[in-house]
Specification:
It comes from Streptomyces subrutilus. By secondary structure, the chain is α+β, with helices and mostly antiparallel strands. 49% of the residues lie in helices and 9% in strands. The protein has one domain: Cytochrome P450 (Cytochrome p450, Orthogonal Bundle).
C-alpha cells in the first residue's frame, strides 16, 4: 500500500479487540486508510474516514465475493484461519451483482417498512415482558441491580429474529452462543472457531430440515425460513442453493440480533452517562429516533467489519489499496471522523443535524436490509425502558464495564443497572 506503508508500520490488529475509539483516533490521524495485519499474519487494510468509507462501500470496483482475494485460494492464508467464516459463507452478504440482487429480493420482502411496522405490537409485548424480568432480577439482588444485557437487550432482538425465522425457543440460547463465537468473538482459537462454525451450520441445517418436513406435510409456516425454502425448491430464477439457504439464515440470525443488542446497550450507556441528553427526550426537544441515530454514529454496534476486496489497485483517500486486499469497513472510526462530523465529533449530541448521516447500516447495494427492524426494536426498547424505570442508572462505573473481546463487534458483555422505582 502507499503512500502510508513506506513510513508507517502496519497496525497489528489485536484479536481481543476492546473499546475502539482511542485506536480509531490514532490511526485516523495518520490517514483515512490504514494498513493492518490481521490475526494470523494476514495483510489487510481498514477504511477509517467517513467520506472515504462511503466511496469505498459503493465503488463499482469493490467486491464482496471472496474469489477476488487470491490469498484465500493460493495457500497464502491458512485453511483454518478463523476469519474465513466471513469469506467462505454463501449468501447475499458475500454476493455481487445479479446474485446479490436475487438473494436480497427474497429477504427484502420481510423487511419493508410496512412489514416491519406490523411487528410493532409484538416487539412492544416482548419488551414489556422482558422489563418485568429485569425488575424481578433487580428485586432479588441485594444491591437492587440486574444485568440489562442478559435480561433485556439480548433476548428482545433474539426472540424477534427467531420468531421471524420460525426458530423454536429450544434452539435460541445455543444459536446465540455459536453465532457470537463464530462472528463476534475474534479472540477464539482456530479450532474453537471452526468447531463452532460447523455446529452452527449443522444446527441451521436441522432447523431448515424441520421446516422442509413441515412443508412436505402441507404445514408450511409463514416465517422467513419457510419462504426461503419455498424459493429453494421452486423452479423460477429465485432458487437458492442449499449453501445459500443456510448462509442466508445464518446472516439473518446474526445480523438480526447481535447488532441490535449492541445498539440498545450502547444507547443505554450513553444516556445514563449523558443525563442532559436524556432530559432532551423527556422534554420533547428530541426523539428516541434521534437517540438511536446518534448512538449509531457515536458508538455504533459494529466496529471494523470484514470483508470487501478491490478488483483492481484502488486509490482511496490518497492511499493505494492493492487488488485483492481483504479490507475492513471502519464504521466506528467513520462515525467520529471530525473531517465530516466537525470538531465536536467525539461528543454525544442527539440534536446533531448530521446524526442521520452515519454509515452504520452501510451504504450502496449492501445497505443493511434489516435497518428498519433494528430501528424499530431499539426505539421501542429505549422508550419502554425509560418510561418504566425513569430513575434507571448504571450499577458500575462505565470504565469497569467488560468490553466485548472483538474488533468486529462494539459493545460490552454485561450492563449492570439499577432500575430504581417503577413508573407503573
Amino acid at each position: 500500500m502507499s503512500p502510508n506503508s513506506a513510513s508507517v508500520p502496519a497496525h497489528r490488529v489485536d484479536p481481543a479487540g476492546g473499546c475502539p475509539h482511542a485506536l480509531n483516533a490514532r490511526l485516523r490521524a495518520r490517514g483515512a486508510v490504514a494498513e493492518v495485519v490481521l490475526p494470523g499474519a494476514v495483510p489487510g487494510a481498514v477504511v477509517l474516514g467517513h467520506e472515504e468509507l462511503k466511496e469505498f462501500l459503493a465503488h463499482p470496483d469493490v467486491a464482496k465475493d471472496a474469489r477476488h482475494c487470491p490469498a484465500l485460494h493460493d495457500g497464502s492464508i491458512a485453511r483454518d484461519w478463523p476469519l474465513r467464516v466471513f469469506a467462505d459463507a454463501q449468501g447475499m452478504h458475500t454476493a455481487d451483482g445479479a446474485d446479490h440482487r436475487r438473494l436480497r429480493a427474497l429477504v427484502g420482502k420481510a423487511f419493508t417498512a410496512r412489514q416491519v411496522e406490523r411487528l410493532r405490537p409484538r416487539v412492544e409485548e416482548l419488551a414489556d415482558t422482558l422489563l418485568d424480568d429485569l425488575a424481578r432480577a433487580a428485586a432479588e439482588d441485594p444491591d437492587g441491580a440486574a444485568d440489562l444485557h442478559a435480561h433485556f437487550a439480548l433476548p428482545l432482538p433474539m426472540n424477534v429474529i427467531c420468531e421471524l425465522l420460525g426458530v423454536d425457543p429450544e434452539h435460541r440460547g445455543r444459536l446465540h452462543e455459536l453465532s457470537h463465537t463464530v462472528i463476534v468473538a475474534t479472540d477464539t482459537t482456530p479450532a474453537e472457531a471452526m468447531a463452532a462454525a460447523r455446529e452452527l451450520v449443522a444446527l441451521m441445517g436441522t432447523i431448515a430440515a424441520a421446516h422442509r418436513a413441515a412443508a412436505a406435510r402441507g404445514e408450511a409456516g409463514e416465517d422467513l425460513t419457510s419462504a426461503l425454502i419455498a424459493a429453494r425448491e421452486g423452479d423460477d430464477g429465485d432458487r437458492l442453493s442449499e449453501a445459500e439457504l443456510i448462509g442466508t439464515m445464518r446472516l439473518m440470525l446474526v445480523a438480526g440480533h447481535e447488532t441490535t443488542l449492541n445498539l440498545i446497550v450502547n444507547a443505554v450507556r450513553a444516556l445514563c452517562t449523558h443525563p442532559d441528553q436524556l432530559a432532551l427526550v423527556r422534554e420533547s426537544r428530541a426523539t428516541w429516533s434521534d437517540v438511536v441515530d446518534e448512538t449509531l454514529r457515536w458508538d455504533g454496534p459494529v466496529s471494523w467489519f470484514p470483508f470487501r476486496y478491490p478488483t483492481r489497485d484502488l486509490t482511496v483517500g490518497g492511499t493505494v489499496i492493492p487488488r485483492g486486499t481483504p479490507v475492513l469497513a471502519g464504521y466506528t472510526a467513520a462515525g467520529r471522523d471530525a473531517a465530516f462530523h466537525g470538531p465536536d465529533a467525539d461528543r454525544f449530541d442527539i440534536t446533531r443535524p448530521t446524526a442521520a448521516r452515519h454509515l452504520s447500516f452501510g451504504h450502496g447495494a449492501h445497505y443493511c436490509a434489516g435497518a428498519p427492524l433494528a430501528r424499530l426494536e431499539a426505539t421501542i426498547a429505549l422508550e419502554r425502558l425509560f418510561a418504566r424505570f425513569p430513575d434507571l442508572g448504571l450499577a458500575a462505573p462505565e470504565a469497569d464495564l467488560p468490553h466485548q473481546r472483538s474488533f468486529i463487534g462494539n459493545g460490552v458483555r454485561a450492563l449492570p443497572v439499577r432500575p430504581g422505582r417503577s413508573a407503573g
